[in-house]
Amino acid sequence: MGRTSRKRKRKKMKNQISSLSTEDSVLNLIKWLLLEDWRPTCNLRRSTFPKTGRGLMTKELISLNRIIVRIPAHLLISVKCVSESLLGRILRESETYFSVHQVLAVFLIWEKHIGMNSFWRWYIETLPQEYTSPLFSNERDIDKFPTFIKERIHELRRKVDELFKSVQNIMRGKICQHCKKALVYVFTSGEFKWAWFTVNSRSVYIAPEHNFPHDLKLRDANSFVLAPFLDLFNHSDDAKVNASFNSKSNSYEIETLVKYNRFDEVFVHYGDHSNLKLYLEYGFILNKNKNDVIFFDKCDFNAETFACSEYDYTRKINFLISKNFFCDLYCTFEDLSWNMYVLCYVFSPCFAFDDNSIKKIYSGAFNSCDKYNISKIGKVIIKNKLIEYQEYFDTVDKYINKNNCNESVVIGCSLLKEYMDILND
């Protein structure tokens, strides 16, 4: 290669770097990716957006079916990477079967620990050291939320704790060859929680048949990898993409199915997740998330709710249970679920335990009087739930104002506000 050609290549690389970021850690990541033969497929730039914070802005028109990012296979952190590392030997010696998330998490801890000696150093340095998921909140903060949120947080914590214990067991008695420290002091509970959340919130799906061969014992399908650079994109439930591993280009590719104008933020799509799932597993929520659902159960109803006798209430609840209608009781931004409609009808003055009423339940052939009564009872149920959430919201909001809470509590308060907006609609 001649001197002029080398200068052109260096200038092009410099332009690609400066167009993407001015942040040191991301700048170093881009430099490293370019040196490893990664190339941008679109003219993107890191920018700050009022609703999403830091994200990627396009400097050009992006048409439908354009590849917005392509990551070469050798820059994907896979189970194969782990199996070929020093850590792979330790995992192979164990009789334990690991989950893919577990394997990738311990690899992140290991690579973070070896620091300058890690091939993945520049990627790891871009990862947040703290997350806003309630997984990292203290019990005092969590206790302020409704039971259904607390239960999901505790369920997630138990899952992560169990995974950590199995990792801790295989690290006992082993020494780090880099620093001579016992590995149980490297693979700590805090580090594992951080690494597991990183993998859970940043890994991407690859069909097992396209993933890379390895010799580790897995208890689930080898279908996830970490892909440096993808973290720079934000998620939107309006984004439409095709994401897959392309065997021809030997790369992981994301194709956009929507158009972007110049200066638009470019998004990817993590999946059709509710705000509760996004809050728990990603540490953020979306405004007016179309996947949000508010569930109801027996605790939300009593004889007073429907202005009926205890006898009538018990009889009708038992009827709904026997016909399998006392489940999937929820509402969305758009409407009540079908089973909620049925419940409201059964508790309306129009319902009788006869063939005509039961036929209406299965056919949906409600007349205008039925629909009026269904709507009337539905509004009572919605109003009661709104009052309940308003009380929780006020409690959490007051708690935030009086205490130095972490960001996850503030986001949790916003989640309650989103639920209240659904009920108000």
UniProtKB/TrEMBL annotation:
* GO MF annotation: an example: protein-lysine N-methyltransferase activity
Q: Which SUPFAM superfamilies match?
A: SET domain (SSF82199)
Q: Which PANTHER family match?
A: SET DOMAIN-CONTAINING PROTEIN 4, UNCHARACTERIZED PUTATIVE METHYLTRANSFERASE
Please name the Gene3D superfamilies in this protein's record. Answer: set domain protein methyltransferase, domain 1 (3.90.1410.10)
Q: Boundaries of each SET domain copy?
A: 53-271
How is this protein named in the record? SET domain-containing protein
